[in-house]
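Exercise: predict the fold of this chain.
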Amino acid sequence: MKANPTYTAVMMQAKDGTFTGYIEEVPAVISQGNNEQELRENLLDALQMMLDYYKVEARKFFRKTPSLQRKREILSLV
């Protein structure tokens, strides 16, 4: 079963009535909209694009890594 991660959107209204915002947990996810709903939709689009980008970059990184024996262990943050 996959976990459904949650993200924190920080939204601000400008003097002209438009909205800007960003996702705290994911660097570079910023957007704007004419109203709060449009901003939410734009932030979700930007978040999806950034997560897709991170997946592609991670695959490139691991392809370049030589085939080494890797040790796996589960770490718990306390």
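Check your answer against the key: The radius of gyration is 18 Å.
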